[in-house]
């Protein structure tokens, strides 16, 4: 009698330790998508929920975890949102936004795991958590370890730098001047960032908070670097700046986003996503006549060039100093195309 076996695909980290870093080679479709269960009501309210782990708890800054309530697809992204400490002091003030897209290695791997802590180990959410540490008179560093099944991946073997502290200046610049949004991708809903779903999420953020529509900035690393460029191509009249880190994109369509100010980062020794992926985009943008493209290369860094990039205070001053030059895409997804996702209202 032949025993049945569970077949594992190339995306399973148990059989392919580097599966989480294959985004630059292929985009995979969604699977096991949760169903749409109701039509859009006249009013809906987003309520913070428990992320299922203690790593996002803060004392000195709002850093809450939400479900995406409306989407033009049958799934949405759970997401963390930080608000500046003085957000409520002046209700007439509108704030710039940083949308941060994490990499493949920071993705959740299925419902019920409570793995959203992966998405806050690096980049913008790490800065927010380190700001809270500073305000508690602690060192501006965090310690959120990877689950055992991720520790064999190529990125982890290259010395994950999440424990490195964040400069106090960077903590203050980000936490006190921006609304930050960190969606958490679950691989069960597909491999790679979905630009349509991200656009619906941004519509929701604009509705929920006092956002300056001319100062929405997008950044991300690795898979999130690809997502940064792809989202801009999806809604090219929405963003003030783009900061893709160790990513890549469709260089044949960059003419659509040449008006957006961009600062690209990549490690020369990156053997997961080669620096040529960023070089191709930068060259295409320059050839298309982009007025300002900054390209920072790190000669001694491998895949983790994001720790260096996000610890640089100049990138946030650069964001604060720019607004979008072409208006449009004020609401990327029309209301009639949205539905409320499954879950409690």
Automatic annotation (TrEMBL):
Keywords: Signal. Residues 1-22 are annotated as: Disordered. Residues 196-308 form the Phospholipase/carboxylesterase/thioesterase domain. Signal peptide: none annotated. Pfam families: Abhydrolase_2. Transmembrane segments: none annotated. This is Phospholipase/carboxylesterase/thioesterase domain-containing protein. The lineage of its organism: Eukaryota, Fungi, Dikarya, Ascomycota, Pezizomycotina.
């Amino acid at each position: 009698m032949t025993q049945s076996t569970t077949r594992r695909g190339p995306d399973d980290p148990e059989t392919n330790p580097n599966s989480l870093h294959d985004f630059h080679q292929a985009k995979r479709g969604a699977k096991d998508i949760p169903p749409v269960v109701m039509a859009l009501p006249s009013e809906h309210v987003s309520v913070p929920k428990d992320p299922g782990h203690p790593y996002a708890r803060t004392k000195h800054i709002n850093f809450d975890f939400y479900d995406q309530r409306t989407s033009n697809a049958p799934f949405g992204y759970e997401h963390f949102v930080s608000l500046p400490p003085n957000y409520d002091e002046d209700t007439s003030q509108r704030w710039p936004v940083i949308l941060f897209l994490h990499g493949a290695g920071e993705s959740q791997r299925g419902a019920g795991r409570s793995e959203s802590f992966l998405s806050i180990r690096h980049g913008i959410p790490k800065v927010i958590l380190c700001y809270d540490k500073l305000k508690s008179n602690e060192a501006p560093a965090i310690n959120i370890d990877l689950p055992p099944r991720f520790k064999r991946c190529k990125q982890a073997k290259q010395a994950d730098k999440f424990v490195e502290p964040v400069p106090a200046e960077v903590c203050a610049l980000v936490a006190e001047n921006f609304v930050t949004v960190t969606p958490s991708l679950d691989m069960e809903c597909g491999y790679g960032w979905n630009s349509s779903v991200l656009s619906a999420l941004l519509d929701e953020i604009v509705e929920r908070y006092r956002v300056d529509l001319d100062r929405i900035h997008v950044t991300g690393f690795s898979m999130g670097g690809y997502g940064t460029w792809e989202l801009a191509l999806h809604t090219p009249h929405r963003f003030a700046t783009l900061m893709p880190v160790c990513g890549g994109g469709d260089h044949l369509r960059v003419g659509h986003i040449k008006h957006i100010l961009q600062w690209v980062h990549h490690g020369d020794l990156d053997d997961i996503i080669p620096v040529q992926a960023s070089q191709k985009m930068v060259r295409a943008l320059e050839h298309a006549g982009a007025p300002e493209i900054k390209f920072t290369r790190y000669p001694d860094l491998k895949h983790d060039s994001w720790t260096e990039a996000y610890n640089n205070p100049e990138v946030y001053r650069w964001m604060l100093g720019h607004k979008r030059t072409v208006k449009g895409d004020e609401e990327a997804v029309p209301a009639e195309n949205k539905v409320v996702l499954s879950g409690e209202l």
